[in-house]
Specification:
Elements: H1 11-18, H2 23-26, E1 33-37, H3 46-56, E2 61-65, H4 75-92, E3 104-105, H5 114-120, E4 141-147, H6 156-165, E5 171-180, E6 186-191, E7 196-201, E8 207-213, H7 217-224, E9 234-235
Parallel strand pairs: 1-2, 2-3
Antiparallel strand pairs: 4-8, 4-9, 5-6, 5-8, 6-7
Length: 236
């Protein structure tokens, strides 16, 4: 069973759930993997630094995403920067763990081979404690879902840019999801304030996930509704 929580997740809930009866008799934890964005800013909000630390603290392996080997930053510099940031965040929550280069998988994901996946299945996890500073129920950082979306294709980028730049929507870190395209395929969207990526894919689900601080669902609704042609639109 693969469990993929959101980017704003309390790892204590994961451990607590699997240690409850009768689940503790049915399941055991295999490998915990933490995906780290190679493009994450060096300075995050206090709560986002906390999430970075707590979601990495007990993992068996860090996996770097969005690595571009053709980029200006060398692999060595990138690894040093990412590990320094995570270790700094761990120290900030009084966690004794400090990651080394061997704890980080840096590979273009399209080039992963079967041996890589087999190795990830057996990395396990670590037991490290840290000082709990926030609870996901009262954190400023939030995740909201906007479902049953259909926009004119020429408006998609404009809508994303509007949401990212409108401070009334909150401080938006990321917009991701898929949207139906005119030709029957789908647009896969992955957007941050740095860049907006749209990729054509065969399958999808008409939903956007918006991650940010003090997110105003109502303000985002106000931007989307005038252009959405799906009458079953809902946001949560």
């Amino acid at each position: 069973i693969i469990i993929e929580p959101s980017g704003i997740f309390d790892m204590d809930e994961f451990f607590d759930t699997l240690h409850e009866t009768p689940l503790d008799q049915w399941f055991e934890i295999g490998s915990i993997l933490t995906i780290v964005d190679a493009e994450m800013p060096e300075v995050l909000s206090e709560q986002m630094e906390y999430l970075l630390a707590t979601e990495a603290a007990c993992c068996g392996k860090l996996i770097l995403s969005k690595w571009n080997p053709e980029g200006q930053e060398t692999k060595e510099a990138l690894v040093s920067r990412i590990l320094s940031h995570i270790n700094r965040a761990l120290s900030g929550v009084q966690c004794s763990r400090q990651f080394q280069e061997s704890d980080l998988l840096v590979r273009v994901w399209d080039t992963l081979i079967i041996e890589d996946f087999q190795a990830l299945q057996s990395v396990g996890y670590q037991n490290y404690s840290y000082v709990k500073q926030f609870h996901t129920d009262n954190m400023e950082s939030e995740v909201h879902y906007f479902m049953h979306l259909r926009f004119p294709e020429e408006k998609i980028r404009e809508l994303i840019q509007t949401i990212l730049s409108d401070t009334d929507c909150g401080k938006i870190y990321r917009v991701k999801g898929t949207l139906p395209a005119n030709d029957g395929t789908w647009w896969k969207v992955n957007a941050t304030t740095e860049k907006i990526e749209m990729t054509s894919v065969k399958d999808g689900q008409a939903v956007w996930i918006v991650i940010g601080d003090h997110v105003s669902r109502e303000k985002i609704d106000a931007h989307l509704l005038p252009y959405n042609t799906d009458p079953e639109y809902v946001s949560i």
